[in-house]
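Hello again, I could really use a second opinion on something today. My current little project is about how a certain protein chain folds up. You're getting the sequence in one-letter code plus the fold written as tokens. Here's the protein in full, and shout if anything looks odd to you:
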Amino acid sequence: MLFPKKVKHRKWQTARLSEAKLARPETRGITVAFGSFGLKAETPARVDSRQIEAARRAMTRCAGKTAKVWIRIFPDRPFTQKAAEVPMGKGKGNPEGYCFEVRPGRVLFEVDGVTEAVAREALRKAGTKLPVKTRIITR
């Protein structure tokens, strides 16, 4: 799983993002830069490092050994969770893992070195593991 080697702040404040601010389209990382085919997000969500790893595994298994896969997102935002059956109050929960805030338009994964049919199937399988609606794009 992906996580940062070192962080400046162990816990981040929860952003009070309005729906309009979250759904605002992304301006960076919106084109296929490395491979020939890409998986683009169409809805906003927070993608967990476990979900990224599950998508990567599904994609690499389907694509085969000749495929080159790029992960264009990195989970650097810590999220916390309180233990089960703990009463309200008594401070913030412990850091549970890391996530990445995806906005619409962001390219999540890229593939190269395989045929279009194989690449589309691999990216489709990866998209099912993520909590966002996705679209397959070409260079």
